[in-house]
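Changelog-adjacent note: as of this version, every example in the card shows the full chain rather than a window. The one below runs 301 residues end to end.
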Amino acid sequence: MAKKKRIGSSFAMYAMLAPYMALLIVFGIVPIIMAIKEVPAPSRVNQDGGWDAFKIVLQDFRFLPALKHVLGFMAIYVPITTIFVIAVALMLDINPSKWKKWLRLAYIVPASISGAVAVLVWYVIFAPTLSPIKPVLNALGIEKSEEIWQTKNLTWLFAIMAFFVVAGNWILIQYGSLQSLSQEIIEAARMDGCSAFQLGWRIKLPLIKKYIIYMGVLIFAGGLQLFVEPQLLNTGVYAGIAEAWSLDQLSFELAFTSGDFGGASALSLMLLIPSLLGALIVIFKTDMFEEAEVSGKRKAE
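Full-length structure tokens:
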């Protein structure tokens, strides 16, 4: 009987895992293999082919500016998003209120706006003639959209767009992680005299550390792949304002403008490395999977 139960449990596990594995293979592993095979292939830029494609990309005059843009964007977007998400999630958890569910809804609504729509939304917000915050813009002396939509301002503008796209979802996720904490630990800390700030800083944050690291890695990986916002702005709103602005844009330009699929593949693989390292950090340097491991040991016993 126990053996049949284990077989049924294993079958259910593999049945649930199968769709994810299929998608991972088709849209993850296969494209990586294709990119590796494409790198040494001859192209218009690298007619002899070979692994010089990496060197050619690194020497491209657009590479360093694009790298600088993305690093500047990440330096603003990642820490601000992480800090804001954790702070708001802690406040939602500390202050129980009948309005809490409406607050959660208010946070998730902006997150339903995709990157493409976000460009149009923020274009309207920053247009003095159309903006709902027109008095604020006028008070700052801004009378034309062109005063805001300039190449020198794009790092901050894209950081603002990306922040509002992802922050709401992560607030709810981190709020859920706080709800899973043991209430006995929380009550014991309160009895020991912890203030609301001490409870959040010294008790709750260490207990959800692995979820914060996980969030940070995904935010970093998503920010590194910035493409939709600059591409749509460059082609649909202000032509030429953000040409090859990000590394993903440069990869797109290499493939579909220069015909250098090997170079585009090489750049894509270079972008994969930081995300892969981040994933390995989550797996091996945190206790993200410790609970499942313990549960498995208990079943074995």
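Structural remarks: Confidence is low (pLDDT under 50) at residues 292-301.
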